[in-house]
Amino acid sequence: MHNEQYVSKLQRVQELLVTTVLGDIPTLILGPKLRNLGYRSIFAQIGSPVYIQNGVEFNGTSCIEIGSGVYIFKGVRMDARGHKNNRIHLGNRVAIERNVDIGSLEDTCIHIRPLAKINYGTILDFKNLLFISIRYPNEVTKLLCIDSDLDFL
User: Fold this and answer.
1) Count of helix runs (H) and strand runs (E) in the chain
2) pTM, entire model
3) 134 contact partners, CB below 8 Å, separation of at least 6
4) Fewer CB atoms inside 10 A, N or C side of the chain?
5) Are 89 and 58 in contact (CB under 8 A)?
6) Which among 58, 53, 57 is positioned nearest to 28, based on CA atoms?
7) CA pair distance 82, 59, nearest whole angstrom
8) Are 54 and 79 spatial neighbours (Cβ–Cβ below 8 Å)?
């Protein structure tokens, strides 16, 4: 038990170090390219190319998988902490607009299919019943009501 806590704290320190140093480098100073290089050491998986704007917050990066061609804009917060089986998976060519909050609780798997666009201000936290808006190419924006016991996307 103590060994697991030690490893977990060590991973969090590494995550904080990388995201703090690289997370706020402006876009104009090669920020996205430097973040891609540094983030490869802390994420479970990260595709190429991936565009991560400055000001994005990640927690539990060892449980986050990011596909190729993904765009993550400023103000996004992803939190996969809380349980060792938590997973957040972003499929290829997903776009996450500004101020989206994606969080997981206990033993949660969030899988966002390829080509999805998560609209501005959406909250995915699986704490209560959620309303989210997701836009897929060639489809009308959908307002979904999701119960935390249901599988989606």
Assistant:
1) 2, 14
2) 0.71
3) 116, 117, 118, 119, 122, 141, 142, 144, 153
4) N
5) no
6) 53
7) 10
8) no
Q: Answer whether 153's CB lies under 8 Å from 116's CB.
A: yes
What tokens were used for 117? 């666009």
Task: Report strand pairing: 77-79 vs 101-103.
Answer: parallel
Q: Which helix (H) or strand (E) holds 29?
A: none
Here the tokens at position 31 are 């920020």
Residue 79: which of 107, 94, 60 has the closest Cα?
A: 60
Model confidence pLDDT, tens digit, residues 13-68: 777 667 666 666 666 566 667 777 777 888 889 998 888 888 888 888 889 999 99
- CA distance to 3, 28, 66, 91, 105, per residue, from 12 (Å): 14, 28, 19, 24, 17
Cα separation, 24 vs 117, in Å, equals 24
